[in-house]
Amino acid sequence: MNTIKITINDTVYDIAINTTILEACKEVGIEVLTICHLEGVSNVGACRLCLVEVEGINKLLPACTTKVAANMVIRTQTEKIKKYQRITTELFFAERNHVCSVCVANGKCELQKLGYKVGMDHIRYPYLFPSCEVDTSHAWFVLDHNRCIMCTRCVRTCAEIEGAFNWDVMNRGNQVRIISDFNTPWGQSTTCTSCGKCLHACPTGAIWPKAIVQGQLEKKPEILKELVEKRKMNL
Amino acid sequence: MDNTDKKRILISPVTRIEGHAKITIQLNDNGKVENALFHVNEFRGFEKFCEGRMYTEMPIITPRICGICPISHSIASVKACEMIQGIQPTYTGNLLRRLIHLGQNISSHALSFFHLSAPDFLLGYDSDPAVRNILGLAASHKEIAVGGIRLRKFGQEISERITGKKIHISGIAPGGMAYPLTEENRLALLAWIPEALHTVQMGIEIIKKFQEENEEMIASFATSPTLYLGMVGKHGEHEIYDGNLRFIDADGTILQDQLNPAKYLDFIAERSVEWSYLKYPYYKPLGFEKGIYRVGPLARLNVASAMKTPKAQAEFEAFKKINNGKPVHGTFYYHYARLIETLSSVEEAEIILNDSEITSNKIQTHGRWNNSEGIGCSEAPRGTLFHHYITDETGKLTKVNLLIATGQNNPSMNRSITDVAKQYINGNNIQEGMLNRVESAIRCYDPCLSCSTHAMGQMPLVIEFINSEGALINTIERL
Ligand code: SF4
Ligand code: SF4
Ligand code: FES
Fold first, then answer.
1. Cβ B359 vs Cβ B180: under 8 Å
2. Considering B12, B248, B325, B371, which has the largest number of Cβ atoms within 10 A of its Cβ?
C-alpha cells in the first residue's frame, strides 16, 4: 500500500494515500466531531463540524471531504476549531425548533449529544422559530421539519443504498427543506419503498416511526454501512 | 352596583402553592369584602401548540404541563391514544402504570401535606413566615419533616425504579409500558411499605388532632356546598386510575353514576371568563350557577361508597361520620381526604407489588391509528383530568381539549376564598394571619398553575390596595 507521512496534532503518522483526513484521524484514534458524515454513503461536507486546521492554508478545511497529502500538518483541537464547533452547534439549535424534553429522540439524538460535547450551555443566537411542517402522511413514519438539520444523510442513504431517490433538497438559505419526490407528502410518494433506511440514517428526531414513544426509539446508523459491505462481499 | 369607593386588595403571589397566582379581594366602601377572585394566568397555550403534532407524542408532551402530576397527564393521554388505536394495554403494563400513578399520588399528596400545609398546623398560621415551611418544621418536628420528605421520595422512587426517572419519566406508552419491573426493584419498593404506612398514619394523627382542636374554625372555614365529581370503580369504590365517573349533589344524592369518561361532553360544559385563562367548567344538566362542582381528594371521598383497602376503609368510615354520612363540604377537610387517599395508595401499592404478574415481560400491546377521536381520563392528585384529541386520518392532531383539575375547581375556589375573606378581612387593617387564611383556603385545593414547584415559602407576598379607579393606594410586602 502506498503511504505518505502526515502530522496530526504534533505526531507523525504513515497514512495510505487517497484517505480523507477524517478517515486518517479515525485510523489513529483521534476524535473529530461530525454529523453529516455517515459511514456507508458519500461525504458532502454539509455540516462543517469536522473542520480542521492545515498548516499553510488560511481557511479551515472539512476533514470528511479533504484528502491527506504528503507532509500535511493537521490540527484538530485548536481553540479556533472549538469555537467554530460551538458556533455551528448553536446555529443548528437556533435555526429550527428543538424541544428535546418532548422529542421522541431525547437521549438518543446525535445533535443533542453534540450539544453536550461542545459544552453548549446556552445559545447566543436569536432563535428563528420558523413555522415548520410535520409530515405525518406516511403510514409508518413521520418527518418533522422542526428537527431537521439538513445533513442530507437521508437523501444520500435513499439514493445510494436503497436506490429509490425519494428524498431531495429544495430552496436555499434558511428556507431549505428536505422534500419527498417533487415536494409531495411522503405518504403519496411514488418512489419511496418504505424500507425505513432514512430513519436509521437520520441523526435527530426528524424522522421517526409512528409506532413508538419517547424512550423507545432505536436508530441503528451502523447497519447502513454493514449493508453496503455485505453487498460488496456478494459481488 | 356603583363601583366608586370600592377598594381592591391584591395578594400576589400566593406562597407555597405550585405555581404563581394572584388573588384580588374586592372591598366595598364600608371596607367589607364583596368578592374574591383567584387569577390563573399561566395555562400555557398547551392545547394550541399540540395541534399539528402526532397524537402519539402527547403522552410525552402533556406531562410538561405540570411538574407534580405529570403521570396523570401521561395516563389520560395514553388512554386517549389507546382509544384512537382501538387497543387495550396488557395486564402487566396496566398494572405498572397503575403503580406509577399511585406513586405520583403518594409523592404529590406528601408534598401538599408535609411540605406545604403541615407547617401551618404544627407551627401555627400566625407564626413567622420565615420558618413556616418544611425547614422550620425540620427544626421543631424532625420526625414528621423527615418522614414527609421520605414519603415523597418513596412515591418518586416507584417511577424511578420502573422507568429510570423520577419526574418527567418516559415509557408510559399506548398499549402499556415500555419498561418492565425487575425483581430486585420490586423487592426494594416493597421494603418501603412499612415506613410509608407509618408516616401517613403520623400525618393522619396530626390532622385529626388539629381538626379536634380547631373545630370552630374548621366548621366555618369555606364550607360552601357544591356538587362533586369523582371516579369510582364498578361497585362505587374509590378509584384514581381507571373507572367510570359519578356526580353527587350537595346532599350526597347520586345525580349520575357509572358515566363513561369518553362521554364527558354530555355532562360537563365549559365557559370562559374574562379574569382567568382557565375555563369555567360546570355540570351541564344544572347550568352554570347551580352546576359548580368540585374534584380532587375531597370530591373523590365524597362520591365513593367505600375504599378498596382495609386501613383506608377504617379512616374513610371516620371521615364519613364528619357530616353523618353526607358529603363533607368544609374545604379544610381536603387535607384529611388527601391523607386517607395517601394511605390507600400505599396499601394498594403493596398489593400490586405482591401481584405475581408484576414483573412479567408482557408489558405492551401495539396498535396503529384507527379512529380519529380519543378521550382519556384519570384522577390526578388534584382531581379528574380529561384529555380529548381529534386527529386527521394520518394521526396528526387537529384539535386538543384538556380539562384539568384546577380548572374544574376554579369556580368553587373563588367561592371558598370569598367565604374566608368575608370572615377574616375587614377594611384596610389587614394582618398577617388573616391573609394567610385566604391563602390557605386556596392551598386546600392544592391548585397547580404551572409546572414550577415552589415547595418552600420563599416567594415574597405582595398585597396591593387598589381603589376603584385602579390607583395603588397602599402596598404591604411580606418577605
Ligand atoms: S432532534 Fe435532537 S436536538 Fe432536536 S429536539 Fe430532538 S432530541 Fe433535541
Ligand atoms: S431528515 Fe434527518 S437525515 Fe434528513 S436531512 Fe433532516 S436531519 Fe438529516
Ligand atoms: S462531517 Fe464533515 S462537514 Fe459534516
1. yes
2. B248
